[in-house]
From TrEMBL:
It holds the Pfam family WHD_DprA. Gene3D superfamilies: 3.40.50.450, Winged helix-like DNA-binding domain superfamily/Winged helix DNA-binding domain (1.10.10.10). This is DNA-protecting protein DprA. It comes from the Bacteria.
Length: 376
């Protein structure tokens, strides 16, 4: 017999892998029906009344094809030590939860914590130069005292240099894949992928046995950006996947840095363009970057939300209910990024931004680099 929690997970997995059903629709279905299991117990008339669910989606759900696949997939994951992280689970990445396009479920293997206190995405061209290799290795070496989780894409070039440097310096590193966990691409990196799982791991939103089709790489890039507090683009051509990652990071209100390069170098065109267009800050050193981000060296291994709490007693008299809620969250959490504040408070970003500005004018909070806020 399958326990209720397992049944709910299987039903959620079934929705994710049902044709024509996207992540936003999955959330709608679960919200309106009161659970993933109840979605499959709903009738056609009820389903088509849910916003975003039309006749095609309702028929696709009720065909049962997703459930059949999910039951087999769940068994395959258990048999291969593949962990499943559903968006309602405590193990799901806190950095992804507030994002509108976050995956409903992630597959992972390895030994790592999504919710480390700091995380850094490092991306760049597959055609890495000796300069790019030197800079990537320097960044990893100089980041080691801060103990961040290093996130990249396991690809040729900058990605694999970053992962291997992490292994050398004993930094936890996470490879985000555009395939299933059992389809390491490129195959030449299989050995490194196995080594990474000792102090780090692999993660994907794709089902086991999924091949790395071209369309899956931009989707992979959004996860790299979403899992990272800051993304560093080391080298990039004028067009490339790392520029897509930088674009996602900017849309998620995350910091982006780009390493400048020679103006005649094709590998540096993308980085120079990001800096020129004010889409990235110029990267000069880890010391300068961490100073701009307001990083310290204390509590390096603390989880998100466990930074030292304020002991001061705050009176909420004279504040609106929304202002009091934000002040309470900051008192509890210490320092919070605006996306996390939005998710925790339930306020949209426009309303929250105005409210934060007002509280800053009142001397109640301070703004920090990276769109982070804390009490004064």
């Amino acid at each position: 017999m399958i326990s209720l929690s397992e049944a709910e997970k299987i039903s959620t997995l079934a929705l994710v892998h049902t044709p024509s059903v996207g992540a936003v629709t999955v959330r709608q279905l679960i919200s309106y029906c009161g659970g993933a299991e109840k979605v499959f117990k709903s009738d056609y008339k009820k389903l088509i009344k849910i916003p975003g669910v039309g006749e095609k989606v309702a028929r696709s759900i009720l065909s049962g094809s997703g459930l059949s696949f999910a039951e087999q997939e769940f068994q395959r994951c258990n048999a291969t030590d593949t962990a499943l992280h559903f968006f309602t689970d405590p193990t799901y990445p806190a950095r992804l939860k507030p994002l509108y396009d976050a995956p409903i479920v992630l597959y992972s293997r390895g030994n790592f914590d999504f919710n480390t206190y700091r995380s850094v995405g490092i991306v760049g061209t597959r055609q890495i130069s000796e300069y790019g290799k030197m800079v990537t290795e320097m960044i990893i070496r100089d980041l080691a005292p801060f103990a961040p989780l290093i996130v990249s894409g396991l690809a040729y070039g900058v990605d694999i240099v970053a992962h291997r440097a992490c292994i050398k310096h004993q930094l936890s590193t996470l490879g985000v894949m555009a395939s299933g966990l059992d389809v390491v691409y490129p195959a030449a990196h299989l050995r490194t992928a196995k080594e990474m799982q000792q102090n780090g791991g692999l993660v994907t939103e794709n089902a086991l046995a999924t091949k790395p089709d071209f369309m899956r790489f931009p989707a992979r890039n959004r996860i790299i950006a979403g899992l990272s507090d800051v993304t560093i683009v080391v080298e990039s051509a004028k067009k490339g996947g790392s520029l897509i990652t930088a674009e996602f990071a900017g849309n998620y209100h995350r910091d982006v840095f780009a390493v400048p390069g020679r103006i005649e170098s094709p590998q540096s065109e993308g980085c120079n363009q990001l800096i020129r267009d004010n889409k990235a800050a110029i990267f000069t050193s880890v010391e300068d970057m961490t100073a701009a981000l307001g990083w310290g060296t204390a509590d390096q291994n603390a989880k998100i939300g466990t930074s030292p709490k304020h002991d001061l007693q705050i009176s909420f008299d004279g504040f609106t209910q929304d202002e009091g809620q934000v002040l309470s969250l900051l008192k509890q959490k210490g320092t919070m990024q605006i996306d996390e504040l939005s998710w925790q408070s339930g306020m949209n970003l426009n309303k929250l931004a105005a409210l934060l500005l007002n509280l800053e004018f009142q001397g109640m909070i301070r703004s920090m680099p990276g769109k982070k806020y804390s009490l004064m």
